[in-house]
Amino acid sequence: MPKTPNLRWITVINTPNKSQKLNFKSTEFLQSSSALNNAPADFGCEVAFAGRSNAGKSSAINALTGNSKLARTSRTPGRTQLINFFTVADQIRLVDLPGYGFAKVPLKVKEDWNKQLERYLQYRRSLKGLILLMDIRHPLKDYDRKMIEWAAVSEMPAHILLTKCDKIKRGPAKTALLSVKKELKANERWISVQLFSSHNHEGMNELQRTLNWWLALAEDDVAQIKEDLAE
After folding, report:
1. Could you tell me if residue 2 is inside a domain?
2. Would the pLDDT of 76 be above 60?
3. What pTM did the predictor assign?
4. How does DSSP assign 129-190, residue by residue?
């Protein structure tokens, strides 16, 4: 752990004990926000799903929650233009961020999206981690690398889902996983990687374990961090 704990970790309120598992099946839509100033109150904790347009963010959330209609999906990249918040439990949320990097989106719209995404990542104190989704057939594009660099510099945990792994054979999928892990080894303290498929739920248990670790932070851990900061 860094000598100065990440201040985001002291905002957790009324979270369940780490021995408890969150019931993602009970997740409900909370609200959509066009900007940080009309987002839900910045209390509790949340994990954001980020990635290039059509990387499978909404599909992953729907698979995780067992609700195919919870997060809006579209065959047209660039359709998600709002920050969508979902309630898992009291003061615990999942967040579906607008997709980035889609070339056919008008420049003005793209600039607005990027500005709101940057503000959310920089100032949202309840953000505890990023689930970064990449199509396994096209990983580590420029925007992906920028997100990874930001996460490492900000000491923000990021867990990469190499999505749509059911689209390729097992051998090439494992090769792609090892290749991404090798390239990101310098940042392995903050960045982890796994295979994932919303279609057949491969990797779902690993994703759930990661989310539980980040979101179900015990109250005594929060108290210890506050005590460390006071010293």
Report:
1. no
2. no
3. 0.83
4. EEEEEEETTS-S-HHHHHHHHHHHHHT--EEEEEE-GGGS-HHHHHHHHHHHHHHTGGGTTT
